[in-house]
Design goal:
A alpha/beta, B alpha/beta, C alpha/beta, B: alpha/beta, about 25% helix, about 20% strand, C: alpha/beta, Rossmann fold, 5-stranded parallel beta sheet, 8 strands
Chain lengths: ~350, ~450, ~200
């Protein structure tokens, strides 16, 4: 019974073997590895279980304070974060630019420093300027920053919930709701959570879309093929040509651009319509909404060219009848409502991740 | 203080005006250059101080055709006093300051104010540049002759382009008998729109509005056509694109009176620096991204543009290096990239940056010195030739620098009030040892070595 | 680093068989019983206990799984980034819950599990089954069924290995040669889950 033996390798605990330093901020998906994205999506699955309980509350983030700091109007993202925080028992304080000292001209940085001084753990920020969350991350050393949308740049939590929705629908990455569908798509060749072989078509105003940018990183990292379709005037210039003064970006190397949506949509597994801001027409990017609708609206006819079970996504809020037809928006292929539900689970996973990762 | 006699011994003398590049001694006295060559012990004046110049380069002091001293009006960003100290520390003995002050330099009274302030506060020569249009508004020509008589050395609405083509045409025409250049900040605003950095891969990654190269090139092309039509002297401020270099090259080949300048940052760093990783390749933006100290107009561009600018500078298509020193207060940069002020504090890093090109064998030492001295002097006009010369009898405005001294940029040591530089924390190779203005030492580093006095044999 | 074997595969098997009998005896059968395993190894032990009950009584007792990450009192220090599924399909309202874990040490894991359980309903009773009790309780918690008691020192670590996770059934005591290493593990505050 008192057998003794020597272990050759110093067996440091598994928990220590995860060498990646804990994540402090969620600013964009460009600095997430595929493994880290998978981990978040997997964790979101457990969070969704909590959301399905009768008592939708666990004490995980008890005593943590989250501030949502929104400089832009938002309904779903803000409520989604608020619900996520509250289900995890965090205290969530909502702050918007109107009615706060930001309206009196207080700078973003000073607002951030003030919030930090109040002992807040996490700031969820939405701001009309690209990079605003980075400014806080650079200057606030005690707070985790989550980017809830910055200018034209990134919307990483939206991209993660989109990835989750696709995995969930297709049954990739664990117990999905429709694993038969995955089989019919020949998912056997894929890894457990990769999206190798999937074709994702993102349609519309890519130039001004933070959702598109973050989704390009997300889907590309998970192995999907990303095709962008929309007017050339609404594509980032460096995606259109590689000559001249324009160097091709890493993003350019991850996507294909095809302005012809009827061709781009062929064989697609996922079709994501982007919101078209109506003011783009006035700014000269488009001849008319009529012409946009004719060339790039996601319609039944066009969707018929995609895979039979292709799903249609939209980050919301929708302009029904412009970038997406009414029948598609509310049709069987739409997963737009699931996106919203999954948003809460994904944001719970991120809040939890940052808390367990944060230094004492 | 009456200037002593000083001899700098065994330095590498580069005097581009005389096409001189050899090791020798420089004798200074009475505020002038007394001689270059071999100054034997017996030829040294009584009480002459001796500087050991071995391993160092001595050349005419640098002339900056384009800097912002912010006075009057924005003394919280920079003053003539602080800017002149920064210039001296950077090896500059002449600074031409841009008129985007408040009030702008559009009347003789403001020119006189700057002269007076410079006499009082400045260690080095300050030459104001006057406005092209009243209030820099682009509508009516400023009183250009009065400004010229008061002592401006060029005209510019810098910070803003002269955007109305007809006003530019009239300005070139009107000033053609004054002998002064019109320096235009070329930016076609209907193309640059809300842009905050160069159009391209980094802008796409970071979701920042891009400024297309064509915004600069379209206006340069316009101005070249106008210069050709009017016979006026056009000076193109801060070139930043490969296409701009081609345009200037072609214009010069056609004999049009056009000169051009380029800034140290456009010659040495790219839009990759906006990622905040000091130009190191990066796959992801990361927390340091959106380094607002890289926000500058014209924007930092691609490596291809940098290469074309260096080539254009080396082969003489670009006449001179100007700093576009644009100091800002801290708050102007501690905001989002979109809200941040355009501009970099350059005077104190210019030489170290430019020497990277020399060490990297992309530019000869002689050419670098030429573009910092004789090049800008030529743009200013023949009457300024002495500022770029070390011939006996010219003012002893000279710089002594160590091309191999490595140092780390620490903005807390800057003389300039503007600490806004993306080079903070980086290592540069090459630094000023001493700057002389009219024979006086106006800056000396701890590296300056005086030899012990010796009795005559 | 050395290990001292505490329980062999046979020891583990016998202990689980005995615990199954004790459960039957105390509850006079399997009525309203539900076995809830705490992730990770508690889940496998729960399944084995259920298999024993099936063998002894021919009754299938439902097995549920519980992840207690959300309920820890030391979230920042030691929560795993990976959350495992909590699956209690049949609910626990008015049930007799047999909570199962591998090692009982400070009692904090069981405290978290009790908190987690009540979010799923009001059980008639909760009983605790444990493979190894190593002492050093920090909370007033005791086990109803114990595979084996083992007095340990605080610095020592216990490794529970199960076929499902480690390819072998055994329990070992790890003795660190180096004091430094002992301190390292103390700093990390690794307790009963040091087998994970």
């Amino acid at each position: 019974m008192s057998l003794s033996r020597t272990i050759e390798t110093p067996n440091i605990d598994d928990a220590l073997a995860v060498a990646r330093p804990p994540r402090k901020h969620v600013l964009d998906l460009d600095d997430f590895s595929r493994e880290e994205i998978s981990e978040v999506l997997e964790s979101a699955r457990s969070m969704k279980e909590v959301l399905g309980r009768d008592i939708k509350k666990v004490p995980a983030l008890r005593g943590r304070v989250i501030v949502t700091l929104f400089y832009e109007a938002s309904t779903r993202t803000r409520i989604s974060f608020e619900e996520a925080g509250k289900v995890l028992s965090a205290d969530v304080i909502n702050m918007s630019a109107s009615g706060s000292s930001a309206e009196k001209g207080e700078s973003l940085l000073n607002t951030g420093l003030t919030i930090q001084a109040m002992g807040v753990d996490t700031i969820v920020i939405r701001h009309p300027h690209s990079g605003a969350p980075y400014l806080l991350a650079q200057h606030l050393n005690k707070v985790s920053i989550i980017n809830a949308g910055d200018g034209l740049h990134a919307h990483p939590t939206q991209a993660l919930l989109d990835l989750y929705t696709v995995q969930d629908k297709l049954g990739v990455g664990g117990q999905g709701s429709d694993s038969q569908g995955a089989d019919s798509r020949g998912s056997d060749s894929r890894g457990s959570d990769s999206m190798e072989g999937l074709k994702v078509v993102i349609v519309g105003d890519v130039l001004h879309s933070r959702v598109a940018r973050s989704n390009i990183w997300g889907f590309a990292k998970m192995g999907a093929k990303v095709v962008l379709s929309g007017p050339n005037t609404l594509m980032p210039p460096d995606l259109l040509r590689s000559k001249g003064n324009i160097a091709r970006s890493q993003i350019a190397s991850m996507v294909e651009v095809d302005t012809n949506l009827d061709r781009a949509i062929e064989g697609a597994d996922v079709v994501m319509a982007l919101r078209l801001q109506q003011e783009r027409q006035n700014a000269g990017f488009l001849p008319s909404l009529r012409e946009y609708i004719r060339r790039w609206q996601v319609t039944d006819d066009r969707l018929a060219k995609a895979k039979p079970k292709a799903m249609v996504m939209h980050p919301g809020p929708m302009n029904e009848g412009i970038e997406i037809s009414n029948s598609i928006a509310h049709g069987g292929s739409s997963v737009i409502e699931e996106q919203v539900t999954n948003g809460v689970a994904v944001r719970m996973a991120l809040l939890y991740k940052l808390t367990i990762g944060a230094p004492e | 203080m009456e200037t002593d006699n000083i001899v700098i011994r065994r330095a590498r003398i580069i005097d581009p005006r005389r096409q001189l590049d050899r090791v020798g001694d420089v004798l200074i006295g009475g505020g002038q250059i007394l001689g270059t060559g071999r100054v034997g012990v017996d030829r040294r004046p009584e009480g002459c101080r001796v500087i050991d110049g071995s391993g160092l380069v001595v050349s005419p002091g640098f002339i900056d055709l384009h800097c912002h001293l912010r006075e009057p009006g924005f003394e919280y960003k920079e003053t003539i006093a602080a800017g002149s100290k920064a210039g001296a520390k950077g090896g500059f003995t002449t600074l031409c300051c841009m008129p985007n002050t408040n009030p702008p330099i559009d009347t003789a009274a403001v020119v006189e104010f700057i002269h007076q302030r410079a006499r009082q506060d400045s260690l080095i020569r300050i030459l104001p540049i006057g406005c092209v249009t009243k209030g820099r508004k682009g509508h009516e020509l400023a009183e250009m002759e009065e400004l010229a008589s008061a002592g401006v050395v060029a005209f510019s609405d810098d910070g803003d382009p002269v955007y109305d083509a007809n006003i530019m045409r009239l300005a070139l025409t009107y000033s053609s008998d004054l002998g002064l250049s019109i320096s235009n900040h070329c930016q076609e605003r209907s193309l640059s729109c809300n842009g905050v950095m160069a159009e391209g891969s980094v802008a796409t990654h970071l979701g920042l509005d891009g400024i297309p190269a064509a915004a600069e090139e379209a206006m340069i092309a316009r101005d070249i056509a106008l210069a050709e039509a009017t016979g006026g002297r056009l000076h193109v401020a801060h070139l930043s694109t490969a296409g701009s270099v081609s345009l200037v090259r072609q214009a010069k080949e056609r004999g049009i009176s056009v000169t051009a300048e380029v800034c140290p940052h456009h010659l040495t760093i790219t839009d990759q620096w906006v990622f905040g990783s000091k130009g190191q390749p990066t796959a992801a933006a990361g927390g340091l991204a959106y380094d607002t100290s890289t926000k500058v107009y014209p924007p930092l561009r691609s490596q291809r543009d940098v290469d074309a600018l260096v080539t254009g500078l080396a082969d003489g298509v670009i006449d001179c290096i100007a700093t576009d020193h644009a100091p800002h207060d801290v708050t102007s940069k501690q905001v989002t990239y979109q809200d941040a002020a355009f501009g970099i504090s350059v005077l104190e890093t210019a030489l170290g940056s430019l020497l990277q090109l020399v060490h990297g064998r992309k530019l000869s030492m002689g050419a670098m010195v030429e573009r910092l001295t004789n090049g800008p002097a030529r743009v200013l006009g023949e009457s300024f030739a002495d500022l770029a010369s070390m011939e006996p009898g010219t003012p002893a405005d000279i710089v002594l620098f160590d091309p191999n001294a490595e140092w780390t940029v620490d903005t807390s040591e800057f003389e300039s009030k503007g600490k806004n530089t993306p080079l903070e924390g980086t290592v540069l190779k090459g630094r000023v040892v001493a700057t002389f203005a009219a024979g006086n030492i106006v800056y000396e580093s701890p590296e300056l070595r005086f030899e012990a006095p010796r009795a005559k044999p | 680093m050395q290990e001292r074997l505490i329980m062999t595969q046979e020891d583990v098997r016998r202990a689980l068989a005995r615990v199954a009998h004790e459960i039957l005896e105390r509850n006079r059968g399997t009525d309203d019983l539900i076995i809830v395993g705490i992730h990770t190894r508690g889940v496998y032990l729960a399944r084995r206990l259920a298999a024993n009950l099936m063998e002894f009584e021919g009754v299938e007792v439902p097995v549920a799984t519980l992840d207690i990450s959300f309920y820890r009192d030391d979230l920042r220090a030691r929560a795993p980034s990976k959350i495992q599924p909590t699956d209690i399909p049949m609910g626990i309202q008015d049930k007799r819950v047999i909570l199962v874990d591998d090692v009982l040490y400070t009692g904090r894991t069981v405290r978290a599990a009790l908190d987690a359980l009540v979010d799923f309903g009001r059980p008639a009773q909760v009983q605790l089954a444990i493979l190894l009790d190593r002492g050093h309780r920090e909370l007033p918690i005791r086990a109803d069924y114990v595979g084996q008691n083992l007095p340990t020192a605080i610095g020592e670590r216990v490794k529970v290995r199960l076929i499902e996770t480690d390819g072998i059934d055994e329990v070992a005591l790890v003795i660190d040669d180096e004091i430094e290493e002992e301190e390292l593990f103390e700093d990390l505050d690794l307790e009963e889950d040091d087998d994970e």
